[in-house]
Amino acid sequence: MKKILSAFLLLCFTIAFSQEKKPMFWQDIQNFKKEDQQNPPPKDAILFLGSSSFTKWTDVADYFPTKTIINRGFGGSRLTDLNDFADDLLLPYQPKQIIIYCGENDFADNHKLKAKVVVNRFKSFYKKIRERFPNIEVDYISIKYSPSREVIWPQMKEANKKIAAFMEKEPNAEFIDVTKAMQDANGNVRKDIFVEDMLHFKPEGYQIWTKVMTPYMK
């Protein structure tokens, strides 16, 4: 009986330990894998990678009815997470274009984080994309200035500037600046396009992004 009890406790410990070791967003990645098994992803689609601004864009196909989009945004993700899960996010797909929205949460997790750290995180992920897809179009959507995160706008603005300069020098790459389109006539960020958390969008916010993004989409 003692042996059975010991074996049971060991099994429980092993399960608990394995669960503890799973990285953040592991389950999101498993969900993507399951979805890809059930519905094999189409070739030559536009692959969206990034954080909750993409995750919550569940009806993105309605905004771009003539495009084939694979949305692989997972909420709360940072550029560190895109790097950690790069193989899972890139290897299953054969896109003609990748569009990234990520970086906002990196600053939100650490308000003292320097812009150059986030820029280097993006460059690392960009390099991983190019190792897999050397010639496809790769675009980066500027970090948006969410009203709830005004305290870290300065670092975000610096990161946007540096990433824009980097992308300008890269072939088949664009920096898609959505910040100006999100301003009112006085140059202030429009709060009316955000839901109550002043972080995520109402449909009006996605309509603005759609208008800005459309000319860049293949």
TrEMBL record:
Keywords: Signal. Transmembrane segments: none annotated. Residues 57-208 form the SGNH hydrolase-type esterase domain. This is G-D-S-L family lipolytic protein. It comes from Chryseobacterium artocarpi. GO terms for molecular function: phosphatidylcholine lysophospholipase activity. Residues 1-18 form the signal peptide. It comes from the Bacteria.
